[in-house]
Amino acid sequence: MSPFLTSKENIALNLAFQWQGECRINRTFAEYLAIAKKIPSIEALYVYINDELARIHASGQAPYDICYFKKGDRGHWYAPYPTSLSRETIRKALKKSGMLDLKHWKAS
How far is it, in rounded angstroms, from Cα 16 to Cα 50? Predict the structure, then answer.
């Protein structure tokens, strides 16, 4: 598993933060810790994220297409903005970002 978030994992994490009315970037450790402690269960996130993605799809206002390419490719291709994400994608987004570990972190 790559340590970097995929495009879909980034979308999942953005929506998880959005649900809490928070922004993902430029936070102190204490702020990230407080946000992580408030993150609901993966099942609750799954329902919220997929409801949001369905709403975005229904509005016809997808913010962007996902561009895929890798080293050595002679070209690139686009995939539409997702209409749903799996529980595993959401779990990986939380794990790779460190939010899952922070959620269960205990100060010594």
Answer: 11
CA separation for the pair 10, 99 (Å, rounded): 13
Distance CA(49)–CA(11), nearest Å, equals 9
Position 51: which residue type?
D
Separation between Cα atoms, residue 12 and residue 47, nearest integer Å: 11
Average of pLDDT values for 10-37? 94
Instruction: For 42-95, write each residue's pLDDT tens digit.
Output: 999 999 999 999 999 999 999 999 999 888 989 999 999 999 999 999 999 999
DSSP 2: -
Separation between Cα atoms, residue 61 and residue 63, nearest integer Å: 6
Q: Name beta bridge partners: 68.
A: 77
